[in-house]
Task: inverse folding
């Protein structure tokens, strides 16, 4: 080649001519192209090589007069890729018109792979000039979605640590090919072992994933491409990395969600193979960290997060994740901040990088500057001081300024939640999610395991009330050991009480465990996802049958049994009088009721913030429930995210709620708001405002102004 040039992708999305042999030296750091502009920009945007015999007549050609490249005709450019992400472009050119051979393309791609590691490690001379250089040496601010409240500062721990390939070129191709096949053999055996493990159910979606892994691990095309890279001079590890980087670049351009999901399967398989080659175990590092850390992952299961739980765990950052993800629910129980839907965080963060996870604003800072670290350290100190104030309120009665008592309850679902009952000053557990025990287990919890958990919960609560919600599984809450059927709209499908009534073999053992655990105590059982009151009648019959059975065999049963329903489905808003007479108490599941009322998937970032739970239509619906409960003297509680924010909890007080349940960490802030609020005055101001037509001041704006004017902390 008569010309060789390197273009590096800058932080502003511009490809800068970083070095050249053959073009005008004065154009280095001066010539640049945007992504998608010219041949170089096209290569960066498509992550594909371009091999042209007459480059200047290609429709994408962009003439840069400062380079002096007009005398060159043939052109070969390849993307500089790392983890499937373009870091730049490597180009060779010749005056003679020619097509470069396949082995020359391969040679240039291998060289680009070496450059990618140099760029990522910040080892390219002059890399910081004019902001050039990459991600793994520069501070990064990434935007995501706040999924669990709080701020975490620490160092990156990758859930699946990357294997850094440093030995790229082989000295003996036969030896490297043999190493590859030996590691492939071990990989295949490990997958077979997983499939044969006794704790892996014979059916279910998880098994299909493992079967897919087995199919990929035996794919001849994948193996052949790795063998070809070894023949071209790479080590076995570098061959795996090269082929997977090519796969990733190609599949990241796919819009088909199924194909994008297969990319994750291939990634996981390639990482497993790399670990086999270098002798590292698969999975998270088990050594206890001696400093604060934040786990970074594409996604993870709830049980996997529990492996990390300890005093040094300060947060979780996910490339995916949604507010209702099982791992997010567990993270809230642990009291750690979570930021989800952070694009490319796995490519931009590396082990031991400093990182900040802002679970308030949904921001992540990788390798933050000293100024950012200092500002967030101050934020954390401020929050700690504010928490001290909340801690002092723990034993204060939850009574408003004008003497109205409000029941502040906490949500729970795991044994680790129970210490928060005393710590937060909650007056009971308003929602115990029994399904979490099923989600974090590797097998269906046996009746005695369920009974032991429920007994421990009641023991920890002492004289305080506990409301157990029966199994709310199905939809997005998939148990790994149960067969799962694909549904068009899982949130509206076969889940919760619908599944329980169709599969009494699931519900009956749970009811029996609850009845035995609550022997000679009060037992409060709540039914989720009720759509019609006849579903309550059906569950009552099932409960009564279990009571009779236990009594017949000499078991003690609860001294008082209360059966309630969750109002989550809008159809119940038109059966309120009938409902209040059919149950002993009612709870509003505000999260689901809101998303069903507005046909708004709260896990979808494009619409999650479009509608406001403090809007007039939703508050009017909640007011109808309050009025119906008052008419029939039916105890009423609201459980959901709206209860945990002081400003929205203020709205609930204003429309008549006197019992609300929330995550334990929010009880302090809500109580601080309550004791500064005159509820009678609030109702006089809010209820007329609620009846006004929408279009002027929003209810959120009205309540924010009201709180500010009346000295109410929000």
Result:
């Amino acid at each position: 080649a008569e010309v060789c040039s390197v273009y590096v992708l800058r932080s502003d999305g511009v490809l800068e001519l970083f070095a050249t042999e053959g073009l005008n030296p004065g154009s280095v750091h001066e010539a640049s192209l945007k992504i998608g502009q010219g041949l170089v920009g096209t290569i960066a945007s498509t992550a594909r090589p371009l091999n042209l015999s007459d480059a200047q007549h290609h429709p994408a050609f962009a003439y840069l007069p400062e380079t002096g490249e007009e005398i060159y005709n043939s052109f070969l450019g390849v993307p500089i890729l790392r983890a499937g992400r373009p870091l730049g472009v490597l180009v060779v050119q010749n005056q003679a018109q020619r097509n470069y051979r396949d082995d020359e393309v391969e040679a240039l791609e291998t060289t680009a792979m070496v450059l990618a590691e140099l760029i990522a490690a910040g080892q390219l001379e002059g890399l910081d000039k004019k902001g050039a250089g990459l991600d793994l040496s520069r501070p990064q601010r990434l935007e995501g979605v706040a999924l669990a409240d709080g701020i975490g500062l620490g160092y990156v721990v990758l859930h699946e640590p990357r294997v850094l390939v440093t030995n790229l070129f082989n000295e003996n191709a036969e030896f490297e090919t043999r190493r590859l096949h030996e590691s492939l053999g071990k990989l295949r055996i490990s997958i077979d072992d997983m499939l044969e493990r006794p704790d892996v159910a014979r059916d279910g979606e998880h098994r299909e994933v493992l079967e897919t892994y087995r199919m990929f691990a035996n794919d001849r095309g994948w193996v052949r491409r790795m063998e070809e890279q070894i023949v071209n001079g790479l080590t076995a590890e570098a061959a795996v990395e090269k082929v997977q980087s090519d796969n990733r670049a190609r599949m990241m351009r796919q819009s088909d969600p199924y194909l994008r999901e297969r990319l994750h399967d291939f990634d996981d398989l390639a990482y497993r193979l790399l670990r086999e080659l270098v002798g590292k175990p698969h999975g998270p590092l088990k050594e206890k960290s001696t400093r604060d850390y934040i786990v970074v992952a594409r996604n993870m299961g709830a049980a996997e997060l529990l492996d990390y739980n300890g005093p040094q765990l300060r947060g979780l950052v996910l490339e995916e994740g949604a507010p209702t993800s099982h791992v997010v629910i567990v993270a809230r129980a642990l009291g750690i901040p979570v930021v989800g839907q952070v694009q490319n965080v796995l490519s931009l963060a590396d082990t031991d990088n400093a990182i900040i996870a802002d679970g308030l604003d949904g921001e992540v800072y990788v390798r933050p500057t000293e100024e950012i670290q200092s500002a967030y350290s101050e934020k954390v100190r401020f929050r700690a001081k504010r928490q001290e104030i909340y801690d002092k309120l723990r034993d204060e009665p939850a009574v408003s300024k004008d003497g109205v008592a409000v029941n502040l309850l906490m949500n729970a679902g795991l044994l680790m939640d129970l210490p928060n009952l005393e710590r937060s000053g909650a007056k009971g557990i308003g929602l115990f999610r029994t399904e979490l025990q099923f989600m974090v287990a590797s097998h269906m919890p046996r009746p005695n395991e369920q009974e032991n958990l429920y007994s421990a919960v009641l023991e920890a609560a002492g004289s305080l009330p506990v409301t157990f919600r029966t199994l709310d599984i199905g939809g997005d809450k998939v148990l790994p050991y149960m067969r799962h059927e694909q549904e068009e709209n899982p949130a509206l499908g076969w889940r919760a009480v619908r599944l329980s009534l169709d599969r009494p073999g699931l519900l009956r053992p749970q009811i029996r465990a609850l009845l035995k655990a609550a022997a000679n105590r009060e037992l409060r059982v709540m039914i989720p996802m009720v759509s019609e009151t006849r579903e309550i009648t059906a569950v009552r019959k099932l409960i009564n049958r279990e009571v009779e059975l236990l009594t017949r065999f000499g078991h003690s049963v609860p001294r008082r049994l209360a059966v309630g329903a969750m109002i989550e489905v809008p159809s119940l808003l038109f059966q309120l009088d009938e409902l209040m007479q059919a149950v002993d108490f009612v709870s509003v599941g505000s999260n689901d009721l809101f998303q069903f009322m507005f046909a708004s998937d709260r896990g979808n970032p494009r619409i999650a913030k479009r509608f406001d739970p403090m809007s007039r239509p939703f508050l009017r619906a909640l007011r109808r429930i309050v009025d119906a409960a008052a008419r029939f003297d039916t105890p009423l509680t609201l459980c959901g995210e709206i209860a945990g924010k002081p400003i929205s909890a203020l709205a609930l007080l204003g429309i008549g709620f006197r019992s609300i349940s929330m995550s334990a960490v929010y009880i302090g802030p809500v109580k601080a708001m309550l004791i500064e609020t005159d509820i009678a005055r609030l109702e006089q101001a809010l209820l007329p405002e609620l009846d006004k037509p929408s279009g002027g001041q929003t209810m959120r704006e009205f309540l924010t102004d009201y709180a500010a004017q009346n000295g109410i902390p929000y």
In short: Residues 173-196 form the longest helix (24 residues). Residues 129-135, 199-206 have pLDDT under 50 and may be disordered. The longest strand covers residues 85-94.
